[in-house]
Amino acid sequence: MKRAVSISIGSSKRDKKVIINLLGEDISIERIGTDGDMTAAALKFAELDGKVDAFGVGGADLGVLVDGKWHPLYSAMKLIRYIKKTPVADGAGLKNTLEERVGTVLEAELGDYISQAGGKKAFIMTGTDRWGLTQSFTQSGYDCVFGDLMFSLGIPIPIRSKKQLKVLASLLMPIAGRLPFKWIYPTGEKQEERKPKQGKYFQQATVIAGDCHYIKRYMPDDMNGKVVVTNTTTPQDVELFRKCGVKYLVTTMPVLEGRSFGTNVIEATLIAISGEGRKLDTAEYDELLNKIGFKSTVRKLN
Fold first, then answer.
1. DSSP string, 169-236
2. Do 127 and 145 form a contact (C-beta atoms < 8 A)?
3. Rounded Cα distance, 231 and 105, in Å
4. Residue 159 has what DSSP assignment?
5. So what's the pLDDT on residue 59?
């Protein structure tokens, strides 16, 4: 049996293990959280190195891929310092393949609702680290607001174009890439805290898109009628969105046994099932995604 394991610096309350069959082969998919402890995560990678088929890095990005240019996050790179044998992915491969298809899914399944609910207006929590979403929404004709400065750096300035995002990445990533990771992204129990802010941008948008932790942390209590597009969701996350009035929940990753896993987990799964023993390129990911049939899942909550 193939085995893909995500070691996450996120909360252990979100741990999950499933066994599914892909392309005629069973594969174990597992997520292990270390509650914000980066050292524990690094040691867990070391313990399992060479014993599993692929690793995912959860709760952190090793860097961000903006329009084909890689910007490393050096503080997160130490998570994988002990890995010598097992291929490792942080989800960037799927953020720029599977997530780039979501605009087509929205048009096909929710186009009429989005038009009636306020039109093609999207608030994307951070566009630099989810370039596939950025591409998908802009190419699909959405009026976009990006919250990169608001939520990653605490600067209350909206970004409104891909060009501005690229300039922002080129100017700030050499600095932000060297900051302690916990300064720019919630880890451990902080992922479960609610600190609503920038409510007007949530209210102005029809679609709220991006990392689930960011959306949950900063969204207002009133999300009546909104469409949320995100990645990892537990049943508890789904219930919170329902309680706040979200109309439709779209998960860019497939739902497996009631849970949509993170991009890093699914990317590790694809690496494991490929049998290549290495990270795949964009064309290889796309080919596997088409063979397996992974696609975004649309759920009506209210």
1. HHHHHHHHTTS-HHHHS--BGGGG------HHHHHH-SEEES-HHHHHHH--S--TT-EEEES-B-HH
2. no
3. 14
4. B
5. 87
User: For 176-187, how does the pLDDT look when each residue is reduced to its tens digit (9 = 90+)?
Assistant: 888 877 776 666
Residue 12 burial class via C-beta count within 10 angstroms: exposed 0-12, middle 13-18, buried 19 and up? middle
CA-wise closest residue to 97 among 125, 65, 140: 65
pTM, rounded to two decimals: 0.90
Query: 85 by DSSP, 3-state: which?
Result: coil
The answer as to CATH 3.40.50 being correct for domain 2-91+261-294 is: yes
> CATH number of 99-255: 3.30.470, 1.20.1070, 3.30.160, 3.40.50?
3.40.50
Beta carbons of 1 and 28 less than 8 angstroms apart? yes
Give the residue from 213, 240, 235 showing the smallest Cα distance to 226.
240
